[in-house]
Amino acid sequence: PEPSLVRSIVRREAAQLAEAHQVVIDESAQEAAIRLADEYLRNGHQPESTIELLDGSAVAARVARTSQVLESHIHSTLAQRLGRPVANLVRGHDRSSLAQLEQRLNAQIIGQSEAVAKLIGTLIHRRLGLSSPHRPQGVFLFCGPSGVGKTEMARVLASELYGDSRHLIHIDLGEYGNRSSADALIGAPPGYLRSDEDGILTGALAKEPNSVILLDEIEKAHPQTHNLLLGLLDSGRITNNRGRTLDARGCIIILTSNAIAQGTLRRGGIGFVPQTSAPDLITPLTEQFAPEFLGRMDDIILFKALTAVDIEAIVRLRLRETEQRLEEREIQLHYDLDRLVKWLLARMDRLGNGARGIAQVLDRELLQPLARALVEIAPGPNLVWELDNDFFQAGRVKLVEKHLAVPRKWRPAEKEHQCTTRRA
User: At residue 264, does pLDDT exceed 80?
Assistant: First the structure.
């Protein structure tokens, strides 16, 4: 229904709820509930979603022993319904948080500052509501070869804007190369096998209407799939096999392509070195995609080659993340940071697949030996391990101390960086 009709019905129902719960639901609370229902309950029905939200908020106000429904009550009720922390509901629209978004992305996406800047330029004005409300929060085509940060950018965006990397709907379109595969995204037509099941995309969207949708390797999808996605990219809506229209206007949609890797990029070091400027991307892309498909993009973003310095920075970042995970399990790991980084980089050269190879090397060379060592001792907290010469020569992790009542406060030597879950 029209917004004016929604407000009229909500005003009438709010008066009845206020009387039933013996609380005050003023106009500001009603407007907040309408706005939040529109934003986070997109695939529900208005005004029912708002009325249910106000009903729960009135109960929350009574439990808190306040006489008026506040926006904080509405936030807590909505957060409980969505299964998210309250802070995550407002983070993606908070002005101070948005102002720092570029800095936070650059801290996690190494070597792609130009790509981050282009992305932020579109996202901020969309998140502040300065553009059309009838489109997704952003539609982007990320170009570049494997292992330079395209997928990682989507994962970090989901975490930064929606509070959790689980709000990432990731679909590899390389698996949808035939004409009938488009049905898998929205569900099989009635009368066909598994027509009672949700489509992969529409099912995920029904559960999480505020997400980052990542459609990998779009050039490998059948043209019928491209056509199916046009409405989603343009108006933020897609209809499933049962005729239900899903709303994706709260989503950021990212498509990735390796199409320009051949011919327009040449090999050089780690990853690829571009021989073309961003405007020149259009020529090779029009050989892969129809003009009306490319016309739906807010921006086409080229991810640059990763230098050796970038790869080293990513290794150091991943080691910090590994340390944090170990900290959660009360495991201390001590090592010479520069020596470990150099040792891991030497093994990276044998993989030659950019940043994606870092996770493989860390898993095989560090985490697997540590896991083997852990299963050989009795479980318990505050385990202290060391990567000494035996590790770098034979891959064996040394147990220094275990089950300490109070973990030792280690102090690194002057030229040695010892990573520990509890720093001195």
Answer: no
